[in-house]
Structure to design on (198 residues):
């Protein structure tokens, strides 16, 4: 099983990201529960994203968290209302009230309040959809493949490597070195311009 960034190949990471097929984390003839694979993928995704952070990645992660939080809260509110349709549960009512929903115990208003809470909760889905619209869009010009990116890194670093076998951890290390090299080149260029300007 590819359970660390040291083992998970970069191309496999992006294939899982694109397809959602968590079974790609398994080696041939391995089996694992979907819940275990999903939890493992979430752990690897977060670890890779945090190590690969830039301003755009941070923004995307924040938006994805907002979307997930809104969808989860909607699902919980909906299920809470279904449960309260059958019987009063003080713990559920307390949670709903903490979230700002009003639910009166009076039988005359109780079911109307549950219906209103369900309608208000639909706003969470609208919020999630609005957040989804804020996610960065990839234009056709930016549609680079993993191989394109690795080829440019290879060119900048001055050595070649097997694009199919590079792990996520190695990619992150190379990317850091690329950033250091670019920063150093920028500083040298700035110093040269400053010296030539005198």
């Amino acid at each position: 099983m590819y359970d660390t960034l040291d083992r998970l190949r970069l191309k496999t990471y992006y294939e899982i990201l694109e397809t959602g097929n968590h079974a790609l984390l398994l080696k041939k003839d391995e089996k694992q529960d979907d819940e275990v694979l999903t939890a493992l993928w979430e752990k690897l995704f977060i670890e890779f994203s945090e190590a690969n952070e830039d301003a755009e990645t941070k923004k995307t992660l924040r938006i994805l968290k907002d979307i997930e939080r809104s969808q989860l809260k909607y699902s919980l509110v909906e299920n809470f209302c279904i449960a309260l349709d059958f019987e009063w549960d003080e713990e559920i009512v307390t949670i709903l009230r903490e979230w700002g929903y009003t639910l009166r115990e009076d039988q005359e208003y109780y079911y109307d309040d549950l219906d209103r809470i369900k309608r208000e909760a639909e706003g969470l889905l609208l919020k999630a959809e609005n957040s989804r619209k804020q996610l960065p869009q990839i234009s056709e010009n930016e549609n680079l493949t993993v191989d394109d990116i690795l080829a440019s890194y290879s060119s900048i670093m001055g050595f070649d490597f097997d694009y199919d076998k590079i792990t996520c951890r190695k990619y992150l290390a190379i990317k850091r070195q690329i950033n250091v090299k670019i920063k150093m080149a920028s500083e040298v260029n700035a110093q040269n311009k400053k010296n030539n300007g005198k």
Q: What stands out?
A: The CA atoms of residues 1 and 28 lie 9 Å apart. The mean pLDDT is 85.
